[in-house]
Amino acid sequence: MHILKFRRFSLPESQVTPEALVFSPRQAMALGAGMLAAGPALAQQAGLLPAMRNTRYAPGRAITAEREVTTYNNFYEFGSHKTISAAAQRMPQRPWTVKVEGMVESPREYGIEDLLRRMPMEERVYRLRCVEAWAMVVPWTGFQFSALMAEVKPLSSARYVVFQTAVLPSVMPGLRQTWYPWPYTEGCTIAEAANELSFMVVGAYGKLLPPQNGGPIRFHQPWKYGFKAGKSLVTIRFTNQRPVTFWEKLQPQEYGFWANVNPAVNHPRWSQAQERMLGSGESVPTLLFNGYGEFVADLYTNLQNERLWA
Ligand SMILES: Nc1nc2c(c(=O)[nH]1)N[C@H]1C(S)=C(S)[C@@H](COP(=O)(O)O)O[C@H]1N2
Ligand SMILES: [Mo]
Fold first, then answer.
1. What are the backbone angles phi and psi of residue 219, rounded to the nearest 5°?
2. Which amino acids bring their CB within 6 angstroms of ligand 1?
3. Spatial distance between the Cα atoms of 60 and 146, rounded to a whole number of angstroms
4. How much of the chain, in percent, has pLDDT values that exceed 90?
5. 10-residue stretch averages of pLDDT, the chain, 310 residues long
6. Ligand 2 centre and the CA of 132: distance in Å?
7. DSSP letter string, 128-166
8. Whole-angstrom Cα distance, residue 129 to residue 50?
9. What is the structure's pLDDT at 19?
10. Which one, of 185, 251, 250, 263, lies nearest residue 223 by Cα?
């Protein structure tokens, strides 16, 4: 425990947020237990996970059991079914490089360890609503995407951000399904990316993000359907061209660019009014913008002509 504390406090002052300096006994215990169980990979990040929870984003629902979240997944690179978690363990998580490129003043290539050390880490409990009408509530660890934007400085000509998943044919059997438009590519506008809710996820339940959930790094915008949350990212590109994203290429009549959650706009093949909570199986009403309207509704006031819902 003392070693862990030392590591945390040995971070340069400039890389530590004020909240990160507060370290509850409970978190210290969780960290100690995680260390013993998970070995060297976690030990390398010991000073960073778990991070302090940011309570500004109360989910209003119970956190979903970790076991459900880590064993029921959408990750088509590993297969077009939910039980890919075992197969995903074959995806190496280190070394891992994320390129930030395109219309930015300072393009960068980050080693994942370096990125984690540079960014202001926090925990946020967010809802995730899949377009297939299941949902979960997860304590993610990560950093607000705007912190990365501040470092690379998008040019004023940049309009969109594009997120691209790794292509690793030796460990991703799903890539053999050649009718899918690999690589998995997602994107949003600069304004959406700069919103305070846009979050780069590198951990869950106080531990490093497991590969099946998109480790070592995935995106998440909790007011949009889950398919917008690209997993296992290797490239983040700023551009003035609106990307045609993975599901939009496949089924443009069912999955659009904006994909904001709206219970009143049904999927062509099912209702979006309700959602099934993973674990409890409880059926609950779906909320406009997945309940995050107070943070994001303003982004869409001048976009009435766009198809804002999935
Ligand atoms: N690269 C990649 N990212 C992806 C997907 C995918 O198939 N491949 N599925 C998406 C969908 S549809 C959802 S609902 C979420 C699921 O995240 P989870 O498995 O962590 O619950 O990941 C999203 N990100
Ligand atoms: Mo999804």
1. -100, 160
2. 73-77, 130, 165, 184, 213-214, 226-227, 229-231
3. 25
4. 84
5. 35 36 40 40 65 95 98 98 98 98 98 96 98 98 98 98 98 98 98 98 97 98 98 99 97 96 97 98 98 98 92
6. 6
7. EE-TTSEEEEEEEEEEEHHHHHHHH-B-TT--EEEEEE-
8. 24
9. 37
10. 263
Residue 7, judged by CB atoms within 10 A of its CB (0-12, 13-18, 19+), counts as: middle
Residue 169 has which token pair?
């044919």
Structure confidence at residue 45 (pLDDT):
58
Strand residues in the chain grouped as ranges (E):
97-102, 108-111, 122-129, 134-144, 160-165, 185-189, 199-204, 207-208, 218-220, 233-239, 274-277, 283-285
In angstroms, the CA 299 to CA 259 distance is: 13
**How many whole angstroms from 177 Cα to the centroid of ligand 1?**
17
Specify the pLDDT at position 46. Answer: 58
Which among 227, 245, 247 is the best mutation to test ligand 1's pocket, defined by most ligand atoms within 8 Å of the CB? 227
Q: Taking a C-beta distance cutoff of 8 angstroms, is the pair 20, 52 a contact?
A: yes
Give yes or no for a contact between 83 and 107, defined as CB atoms under 8 angstroms apart: no
What integer pLDDT is reported at residue 141 of this predicted model? 97
Residue 127: burial class (beta carbons within 10 Å; 0-12, 13-18, 19+)? buried
CA of 221 to the centre of ligand 2 (A): 13
How many angstroms separate the CA atoms of 227 and 230, rounded? 7
